[in-house]
Design brief:
The protein folds into two domains: 140 residues, Aspartate/ornithine carbamoyltransferase (Rossmann fold, 3-Layer(aba) Sandwich), CATH 3.40.50.1370; 152 residues, Aspartate/ornithine carbamoyltransferase (Rossmann fold), CATH 3.40.50. Helix 1 packs across helix 11. Strand 3, helix 4 and strand 4 form a beta-alpha-beta unit. The longest helix has 20 residues. The relative contact order is 0.16. The two termini are 13 Å apart. It has a five-stranded parallel sheet, with helices on both faces. Helix content is 38%, strand content 14%. It is α/β, with parallel strands linked by helices and 312 residues long.
C-alpha cells in the first residue's frame, strides 16, 4: 500500500504532489462508499479520534465527524467554551488529558497560527489541522482542488482565481499551495487592502479588477469577507464591496463563457456572491460539501495507516 510522506496533516506546504494524488485516489474510493445504501466501512473500528475545536465551526466540524463515523472510529467531540481551557488550562495539558484516555488522532481547529505544528511537536498523537488562525486549512484546499479536478480534469495549466478577503483567509493560502503543486495558474483578486504584501512571492498573479479576472479564469473560488478577524475597516461599505467584488449573474453573462464557481462557506449571500449564482448550475458548492467528507475520510485513513496499530 502507498503511504503518505507525512505523519500529520499540518498544512499543504508539508505535502508533496504524490501525497495529494494519493489522497485523491483514496477519496475516489470513499466517495463511492458514501454513495452506497450502507455508508460505513469498518476500517477504523479500533481507533479513537478527538475533535478539538477552539473556534466556532459548522461545516468542517460536521464533515470531520461524519468522515470519522463513516470509517467506524470512536469519536470524542471537545468544545473549548465548555472546557477547562476557559479556566486557564494550557493547550498541551488539555490535549495530554485527552490522550490519557487512549486517543489516537486529534483533529484541531485553533485561532492561533502554528497551533497544530506546536501540538505535533509536543504530544504523542497524529494531528490533523482543521484550521489554525489565518495560516492554513489543508483539508479545505484538498477538497477544493479535488472538486475542481472533477469538473475540469487535470489541473496542469488550468487558470484558477481566488477572489475576496485573501488577507485573513487560511483557505486562500492552502489553496495557493495545493493548486500550484498540481500545476495550475493562480490569480488573486480583491481590493488592495485585502491582498497581503509580497504574496506574489508564492508564484501567483494579483489583480484588483474582478471582470478581467473572471474573463481570465477557468474556475473561481469566492471567499467571504471575514469580519470576525478584522480590527479595522478595509473598505468603505459592504454595499460598495459587493458592487466591485461580488459575483452576480450580470457579471457572469458579460464574460460570455462558462466558469466553475466555488465557495468554501459560510456564504454571505448578496455580498461576495448572489443567491442566483450560488444556486446556479455552474456552482459546485454542494459538491464541495460532499467531497469534503470523502477527502477527510481519505486523510484520516491514510494517516492512521502510518500509526502501526496492529488492529487496523
Amino acid at each position: 500500500m502507498k503511504k503518505l510522506s507525512v505523519d500529520h496533516l499540518l498544512g499543504i506546504k508539508y505535502l508533496n504532489e504524490d501525497d495529494i494524488h494519493l489522497i485523491f485516489e483514496t477519496a475516489d474510493h470513499f466517495k463511492e462508499v458514501i454513495n452506497r445504501p450502507i455508508k460505513k466501512v469498518p476500517s477504523l473500528r479500533d481507533i479513537t479520534i478527538a475533535n478539538l475545536f477552539f473556534e466556532n465551526s459548522t461545516r468542517t466540524k460536521l464533515s470531520f465527524e461524519l468522515a470519522e463515523k463513516r470509517l467506524s472510529a470512536d469519536v470524542i467531540n471537545f468544545s473549548a467554551s465548555q472546557s477547562s481551557v476557559s479556566k486557564g488550562e494550557t493547550l498541551i495539558d488539555t490535549v495530554n488529558n485527552i490522550l490519557a484516555m487512549k486517543v489516537d488522532v486529534v483533529v484541531m481547529r485553533h485561532p492561533n497560527p502554528g497551533a497544530a505544528l506546536f501540538l505535533s511537536q509536543n504530544v504523542d498523537a497524529c494531528i490533523i489541522n482543521a484550521g489554525d488562525g489565518t495560516h492554513e486549512h489543508p483539508s479545505q484546499a484538498l477538497l477544493d482542488a479535488y472538486s475542481i479536478k472533477e469538473k475540469l480534469g487535470d489541473l496542469k495549466g488550468k487558470r484558477i482565481a481566488i477572489v475576496g478577503d485573501i488577507l485573513h483567509s487560511r483557505v486562500a493560502l492552502s489553496n495557493i499551495f495545493a493548486l500550484k503543486m498540481l500545476g495550475a495558474e493562480v490569480k488573486l483578486c480583491g481590493p488592495k487592502s485585502l491582498i497581503p504584501r509580497h504574496i506574489q512571492s508564492l508564484g501567483v498573479s494579483v489583480s484588483t479588477d474582478l471582470m478581467e479576472t473572471l474573463k481570465w479564469c477557468d474556475a473561481v473560488n469566492m471567499l467571504r469577507v471575514q469580519n470576525e478577524r478584522m480590527d479595522l475597516n478595509y473598505f468603505p461599505t459592504t454595499r460598495e464591496y459587493a458592487q466591485l467584488y461580488g459575483l452576480n449573474l450580470k457579471k457572469l453573462e458579460r464574460i460570455k463563457k462558462e466558469i466553475v464557481i466555488l465557495h468554501p462557506g459560510p456564504i454571505n449571500r448578496g455580498v461576495e456572491i448572489t443567491s442566483d449564482v450560488a444556486d446556479s448550475k455552474n456552482a459546485i458548492i454542494l459538491d464541495q460539501v460532499e467531497n469534503g467528507v470523502a477527502i477527510r475520510m481519505a486523510v484520516i485513513y491514510l494517516l492512521v495507516a502510518k500509526l502501526n496499530i496492529p488492529q487496523v
